[in-house]
């Protein structure tokens, strides 16, 4: 049986697999580089021509990072803590707000719905830089400088998340919601029991990019946080990389920090990737 | 318990000139199996959805159990609905699907378990309770959807074309089960379908609708034997009733139906009806069902009254019967015949009608001219 299956592989199949394997290998180069780079001793980091793979792996970069961090005015762990708090709060609130908004926009009829939808689409077109100043005015206007809410609020209104979820939720058959209505579910009940569980694939998707956006974001730390203790890990790593401190000497520290910044992204992606691929939406309907 | 009254109910969608449901006025008795039937877009589903509370009523009043329910939300109407695409919650197991309605009504946990298991036993889905809807076949999903409705033990069951996604064999089987279920539960059931066979076999009373207007409300037999207008006559019955245009004339005290090809003596029972009409020639449509068309293999004998020659176009053999499509002049007529006699294309059998079973309709209004058959 195995043989018969093998025989069915055509040249086209072979070429396809080969092509995609090559593409996947190419796409994974940066990941492999980050992994290698973090373990390179200083002499390999500055080697010319640069080497891709590490020759003599060492943990000294991480030691340096923690040494550097413990010597700094704000401990490294504080940045990590801030990042975790901000990311968690943002993720939860973006998911809650976006799914609720998307559910209403997708399934209810009300005045000015089209205008609201167009405004959401329109706001997708603004580059983040253009809203920097208005955002600063709002945040300082309501005295959210140096608070966690100052990190969360700008990311909370996520047009791309709402936009994606509206598309997804409008595919949920109306009959499901009507069945729930007749079964006795309230608006909140329908949302929590039917819409939310069915939107999991879309929520996973928006979680990935919201996480990546917030985890790597330095804007809120730079603009709204004057207090160093309120800044995030991304800001700290960025400051190492962008030469705010000694750029040559800190290269090894930056390499290690780069890996640390990358790993949560990878974990989140692997965690949610399965959900994204799951298409469960049509399973209850013929 | 479970009676429903529609009091001149209208549904008008914004931006549409014609109401989707136009003056729906009907009382449904407790325990009745009422079928709403009509072509797509006739307003039957809209009527059902208004009854369920999923559509607002534009005008008129709706009563369930003599309670005014126009503004009562679906969950408080004590109804259950089965949807065409089953609408099972894909994220819940079969058990949870059936139990959700009870859970939301704060039924005690042991009671939920009892009821779900009982319903599962009735519908023979006990072995499926742990599965998700995606793991079920179409027929099984249909049973779960029925189970979800039954478990709540509502006063009124609403069904929106629940069988149209099933294959023919399963449909016939489920149809019989729903009939049995309704007679066991003795609950009011309102059933929407576009399939006239379903309507005829299931309903204790049938409402035929067209363009949002009720055409006729009658038990199946009466609907078949005494259609109130051309639309009902053509819609109910398969193959459909044959229609022949012609005029009614009075000769020597007897009424005759005639056109270019035929001249038929009209039975006496129509006399009163025609007497009431004006004296002049009147255009009518003669309707006759395929089983009341008589074919004679030999050529038409001009002497023999009521028989004319025809020309066979094609023959359809269904097994028990065969249907012969013939042309008589410009009229196309279908006749049900004994499958033992084969007609070939261009055969010229003589054709006549069983005059005791014919119908007459006003050509202009489409209304039936039969005595008492016209309910408006």
UniProtKB/TrEMBL annotation, chain A:
The chain crosses the membrane at residues 12-35, 79-103, 115-136, 148-169, 190-215, 249-272. GO terms for cellular component: plasma membrane. It is found in: Cell membrane. GO terms for biological process: transmembrane transport. Residues 80-272 form the ABC transmembrane type-1 domain. Keywords: Cell membrane, Membrane, Transmembrane, Transmembrane helix, Transport. It is a multi-pass membrane protein. SUPFAM superfamilies: MetI-like. InterPro entries: MetI-like, MetI-like_sf. Coiled coil: none annotated. Belongs to the binding-protein-dependent transport system permease family. This is Carbohydrate ABC transporter permease.
UniProtKB/TrEMBL annotation, chain B:
It comes from the Bacteria. One of its GO terms (biological process) is carbohydrate transport. The keyword Nucleotide-binding applies. Pfam families: ABC_tran, OB_MalK. InterPro entries: AAA+_ATPase, ABC_transporter-like_ATP-bd, ABC_transporter-like_CS, ABC_transpr_MalK-like, ABC_transpr_MalK/UgpC-like, Mo/tungstate-bd_C_term_dom, NA-bd_OB-fold, OB_MalK-like. Keywords: ATP-binding, Nucleotide-binding, Transport. PROSITE patterns: ABC_TRANSPORTER_1, ABC_TRANSPORTER_2. GO terms for molecular function: ABC-type transporter activity; ATP binding; ATP hydrolysis activity. GO terms for cellular component: ATP-binding cassette (ABC) transporter complex, substrate-binding subunit-containing. Residues 4-236 form the ABC transporter domain. This is ABC transporter ATP-binding protein. It comes from Cohnella endophytica.
């Amino acid at each position: 049986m195995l043989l018969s299956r093998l025989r069915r592989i055509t040249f086209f199949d072979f070429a396809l697999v080969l092509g995609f394997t090559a593409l996947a290998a190419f796409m994974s180069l940066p990941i492999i580089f980050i992994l290698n780079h973090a373990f390179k001793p200083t002499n390999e980091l500055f080697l010319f021509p640069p080497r891709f793979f590490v020759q003599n792996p060492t943990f000294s970069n991480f030691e340096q990072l923690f040494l550097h961090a413990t010597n700094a005015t704000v401990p490294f762990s504080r940045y990590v803590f801030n990042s975790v708090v901000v990311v968690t709060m943002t993720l939860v609130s973006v998911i809650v707000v976006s799914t609720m908004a998307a559910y209403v926009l997708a399934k209810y009829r009300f005045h000015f719905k089209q205008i609201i939808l167009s405004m959401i689409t329109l706001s997708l077109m603004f580059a983040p830089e253009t809203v920097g100043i208005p955002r600063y005015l709002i945040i300082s206007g309501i005295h959210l400088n140096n608070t966690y809410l100052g990190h969360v609020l700008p990311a909370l209104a996520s047009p791309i998340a709402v936009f994606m979820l509206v598309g997804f939720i409008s595919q949920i058959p109306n009959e499901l919601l009507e069945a729930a209505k007749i079964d006795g579910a309230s608006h909140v009940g329908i949302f929590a029991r039917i819409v939310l569980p069915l939107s999991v694939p879309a929520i996973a998707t928006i979680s990935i990019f919201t996480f990546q956006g917030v985890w790597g974001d330095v804007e809120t730390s730079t603009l709204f946080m004057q207090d160093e203790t309120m800044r995030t890990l991304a800001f700290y790593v960025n400051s190492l990389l962008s030469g705010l401190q000694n750029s040559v000497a800190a290269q090894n520290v930056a390499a290690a920090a780069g890996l640390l910044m990358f790993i949560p992204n990878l974990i989140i992606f692997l965690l949610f990737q399965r959900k994204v691929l799951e298409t469960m939406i049509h399973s209850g309907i013929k | 318990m479970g009676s429903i009254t529609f009091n001149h109910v209208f549904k008008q969608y914004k931006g549409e000139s014609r109401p989707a449901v136009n003056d729906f006025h009907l009382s449904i008795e407790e325990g009745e199996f009422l079928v709403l039937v009509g072509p797509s877009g006739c307003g039957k589903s809209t009527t059902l959805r208004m009854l369920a509370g999923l559509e607002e009523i534009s005008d008129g009043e709706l009563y369930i159990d003599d309670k005014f329910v126009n503004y009562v939300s679906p969950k408080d109407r004590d109804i259950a609905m089965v949807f065409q695409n089953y609408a099972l919650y894909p994220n819940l197991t079969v058990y949870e699907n059936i139990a959700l309605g009870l859970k939301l009504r704060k039924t005690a946990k042991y009671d939920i378990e009892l009821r779900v298991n009982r319903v599962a036993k009735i519908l023979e889905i006990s072995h499926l309770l742990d599965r998700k809807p995606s793991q079920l076949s179409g027929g099984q999903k249909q049973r779960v959807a029925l189970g979800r409705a039954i478990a709540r033990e509502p006063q009124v069951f609403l069904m929106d074309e629940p069988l149209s996604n099933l294959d023919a064999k399963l449909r016939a089987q489920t149809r019989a089960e729903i009939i049995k279920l309704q007679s066991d539960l003795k609950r009011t059931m309102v059933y929407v379908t576009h399939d006239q066979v379903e309507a005829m076999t299931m309903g204790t009373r049938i409402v035929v609708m067209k363009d949002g207007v009720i055409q006729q409300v009658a038990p199946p037999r009466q609907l078949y034997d005494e259609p109130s207008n051309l639309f009902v006559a053509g819609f109910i019955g398969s193959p459909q009733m044959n229609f022949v245009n012609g005029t009614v004339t009075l000769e020597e005290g007897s009424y005759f139906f005639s056109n270019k090809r035929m001249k038929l003596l009209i039975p006496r029972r129509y006399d009163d009806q025609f007497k009431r009409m004006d004296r002049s020639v009147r255009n009518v449509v003669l309707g006759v069902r395929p089983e009341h068309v008589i074919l004679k293999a030999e050529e038409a004998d001009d002497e023999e009254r009521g028989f004319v020659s025809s020309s066979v176009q094609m023959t359809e053999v269904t097994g028990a019967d065969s249907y012969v499509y013939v042309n008589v002049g410009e009229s196309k007529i279908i006749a049900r015949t004994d499958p033992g006699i084969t007609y070939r294309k261009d055969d010229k059998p003589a054709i006549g009608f069983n005059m005791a079973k014919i119908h007459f309709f006003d050509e202009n209004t489409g209304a039936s001219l039969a005595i008492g058959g016209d309910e408006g």
